[in-house]
Design brief:
The chain has about 290 residues and is an all-alpha fold. About 60% of the residues lie in helices and about 5% in strands. Helix 10 packs across helix 12 and helix 14 crosses helix 15. Its cofactor is [4Fe-4S] cluster. This is Endonuclease III. GO terms for molecular function: 8-oxo-7,8-dihydroguanine DNA N-glycosylase activity; adenine/guanine mispair binding; endonuclease activity; iron-sulfur cluster binding; metal ion binding; oxidized purine DNA binding; purine-specific mismatch base pair DNA N-glycosylase activity.
Length: about 290
Amino acid sequence: MLVSGLRTRFREEGITPSLVLDFQQHVMEFYAAKGRHDMEWRHTDDPYKILVSEIMLQQTQVPRVAVIYPKFIEKFPDIFALAKADHADLLTAWQGMGYNRRALNLQKLARVIADEYGGKIPNDPAVLLTLPGIGPATSCSIAAFAFDRPVVFIETNIRRVFIHYFFEEDQAVDDRELLPLVSAMLPANSREWYWALMDLGTALKSAVKNPNQRSRQYTKQKSFEGSDRQIRGGVLKRMLDQKSGMPELFAEEMDEDPERVRRIMDAMAGEGFFVREEGEIYRLKTGR
């Protein structure tokens, strides 16, 4: 009844103070009872640690981040340690996270902050957006969680909540339709509010048919099995173990097409993972 009631009131009356209060109360009651309060990164006000967690959470599920995050922070406890980290040590610490390019971008970001901002992480989303590997949603999430800034933004879990409660019968819902609601519902404590929204959105994913399928921004994630991403992970693991390798040998080990593996290794060399030497030999970059 709550969902249909909120939706009906929104359609008939628009965004009213009572609608805002009722929705806020519902979200915060859910958070108090079922929120994910045990996440380590929610028990710190260190902007660096929060930034690292937000980069990790971009494309990796919470349970996996929960395992890797504390070890990563222990190894690289501040922005300066990350900025000067050895290339192989960084990639080894990132193993298991997937989307390994994020690790390289995270170090580039750390170097910019260390060199240009004296190690102090900017609190302005517009400035954060200029840093390597930071997109619009991540720039705002860092501002909200690290600095409690009252920013308005949408990411996948937030989108799921607002479509479910206010656009349940609509198709191809554009984020521009959601933004006025996201803005109006934002209370003074933006940090806790966004935690609550994200936890509610995560819960909805398993409770109802994914509302995000009715978003204009929705794209179905491609299968990992047999993807270039899977091969990239296999190549990187072997390079971290062996420090060098050849596409033909890796292709044989992984039962993949040598040309495909060569194309992927060339791309990874261009991204800064490896150095291609004469012939078919690729070496893991060393040092910083």
